[in-house]
Amino acid sequence: ALKRIYPPASSWDKICDLLNAKYRISIDPANGDRSMTKSSTYLPRAYFVDNYKILSDEEKIKQFMMNQEFNPKQTALLEEDPKFLSGVRNDSSSGKADISSYKLNSISLDVSTPQNGILLLSEIYYPGWNAYIDGVKQKILRANWNLRAIPVTKGAHAVDVRFEPESFRRGTFITMTSILLSAIGIVYSLYKKKKRTTK
């Protein structure tokens, strides 16, 4: 079950922006009419940042994200070190991320960045999701409370994000083993039956 649902932020609009919510329900205070309006501040489903800060304590993460100065367009708040990235930059990223395929259990992206950066996805962080950069498995990090982040080296890359839970692999193994054992049992019993009838 998800332990972190809504990211902490100074306003509901900022929470919606982090979660890539494009539309808001607006209410006319005069007559109570409701309508859908498109936001101009929501973050893309996939984008690059060059700056990051590492915090692992939940209370400190909340405080940092509630601060008005926190700008998720420029900085990723990570809970572990991306290691290969060479420090914090002060310029905004010029990296590009285009989603080429979006399915229930997989996302494919074409990305390019002139320097090492963090690819942020407005997708909920959840165990079982794996990232592959040019076919090489890369760990997905938790960013901005409950979203996904993938460290990417400079250059152009194909990124695939797939849901591959360990429970599914174990279940598949058990199922295939059961089918194989059942088939062996059937063949063996038919062989024994045939052997008895030939005597």
Low-pLDDT parts are none
**Number of helices in the DSSP assignment:** 3
Strand order of the largest sheet: 6-7-13-9-10
What letter string, H or E per element, gives the SSE order? HEEEEHEEEEEEEEEH
What does this entry look like structurally?
The chain is built from three helices and 13 strands. The mean pLDDT is 87. The chain starts with 11 loop residues before the first helix and ends with a helix. Strand 11 and strand 12 (147-152) form a beta hairpin. The protein has 199 residues and is of the alpha+beta class. Strands 6-7-13-9-10 form a five-stranded antiparallel beta sheet, with no helix packed on it. Strands 3-8-12-11 form a four-stranded antiparallel beta sheet, with no helix packed on it. A two-stranded antiparallel ribbon has the order 1-2.
Please outline the helices and strands.
Elements (H helix, E strand, L loop, with lengths): L11 H7 L4 E5 L6 E5 L7 E4 L1 E4 L3 H9 L8 E4 L17 E7 L3 E8 L3 E8 L4 E5 L2 E3 L2 E3 L3 E6 L2 E9 L2 H32 L2
Parallel strand pairs: 4-5
Antiparallel strand pairs: 1-2, 3-8, 6-7, 7-13, 8-12, 9-10, 9-13, 11-12
